[in-house]
Amino acid sequence: MDEYSNRGGSSVSTTELGADEIILNMGPQHPSTHGVLRVVLRLDGEKIIGSECVIGYLHRGVEKIGENRTYQQFAPYVDRMDYVAAVSNGLGYCEAVEKLLLTEAPPRARVVRTILTELQRIASHLLWLGTHALDIGALTPVFYCFREREEILKIFEKYCGARLTTHAFRIGGLQYETYDGFEADVKRFCADFTHKIDEYETLLTLNRIWVSRTKGVGILTAEDAIALGVTGPVLRASGIKWDLRKAQPYAAYDKYDFEIPTREHGDTYDRYLVRMDEMRQSQRICMQAVEDIPVGAIMARIGKVLKPPPGEVYHSIEAPKGELGYYIVSDGTVQPYRVRVRPPSFINLQALDKMARGGLVADVVAIIGTIDIVLGEVDR
């Protein structure tokens, strides 16, 4: 396959059986690759017999930037990796540094962090659902999904002034105290959202075109999912009940009652159902948390100049796309000696070849969408 990797357009070779094999480049300009992703497809007619993802077009260098900034200065940079879920990125990084400092955020900060992170999960899934449906040919859902996502972005904007790269947290707690009416806004959104999810399902779940484009497409067995290291909804749709919010609770998740949605078939349709269920569970967590936000401080007692003791830490959270982990090495100075990010989009993307083999070219669009990648964290 490498002999074709640097060629543009399409090429034709002969397989061992004497049949024509077409090498086709999909992306990096193709809109359905969700960024500058290039997929080199090996085709037998319309049937996919192999694929290779070519990444690295963004040249982000986020990890090296982290090693040349102070701990506080690097915090806004992580918001730019998965820019669809900036709040989740910030939570994982702040909690990783707090582990290095042997401290934790106050109870009020942990609960507000949980609320904002679950709202971000809903917003991320809404963007995924709207664009995924658009890729497959359904136009209406994108308008419905962006309608509700806008309400979440309004809450973020009122809280910290940002809508997309939302820098909501600081090492040790929160950047800002909640605004007047924060609880009312969250309650109002959650109360309305139940009916909105029902609208999405009315449009798609039993729609025969949607079902035919997603059922049995991009199957990933539980064994393959574990072997490839995928996490998040992609893993849970294959029947593996693994969620870091339950397995290794962080923030304030141990205080709330919620379920881990799973499915069994591991296809594109099941991954759709898992994410729909996850939005309902996120709403459930927010409703519980907003009813009982503790009073008190929003920042732990930490110095203005952070010098964690020499050591290393790995901390991971359940981001909307899967396990987001930060490995940080401290040498006792104000800058990390080493920063390494474990982004879910990058890990989950390696399952594309396994899911695409045997499918059609049109299925690649559905499969890329169902993995839910953001190239900002793939090319971190």
Question: How would you portray this structure in words?
Answer:
With 380 residues, the protein is an alpha+beta fold. It folds into two domains: 2-54, no CATH class; 62-378, Orthogonal Bundle (Cytochrome-c3 Hydrogenase, chain B). The chain is built from 15 helices and nine strands. It has helices at 62-66, 71-78, 86-100, 107-136, 140-160, 182-204, 208-214, 222-228, 233-236, 244-247, 268-290, 344-349, 352-356, 361-371, 375-378; strands at residues 10-14, 20-26, 38-44, 47-54, 169-170, 173-174, 311-319, 322-330, 338-342. The strands form three sheets. Strands 1-2-3-4 form a four-stranded antiparallel beta sheet. A three-stranded antiparallel beta sheet has the order 7-8-9. Helix 2 (71-78) packs antiparallel against helix 3 (86-100). The longest helix is centred in the N-terminal third of the chain and has 30 residues, at 107-136. It is globular and about 65 Å long. It starts with 9 loop residues before the first strand and ends with a helix. Residues 1-12 have low confidence and may be disordered.
Helices and strands in order:
Elements: E1 10-14, E2 20-26, E3 38-44, E4 47-54, H1 62-66, H2 71-78, H3 86-100, H4 107-136, H5 140-160, E5 169-170, E6 173-174, H6 182-204, H7 208-214, H8 222-228, H9 233-236, H10 244-247, H11 268-290, E7 311-319, E8 322-330, E9 338-342, H12 344-349, H13 352-356, H14 361-371, H15 375-378
Antiparallel strand pairs: 1-2, 2-3, 3-4, 5-6, 7-8, 8-9
Helix pairs in contact: 2-3, 3-4, 4-5, 4-11, 4-14, 5-6, 6-11
Structure summary:
With 380 residues, this protein is an alpha+beta fold.
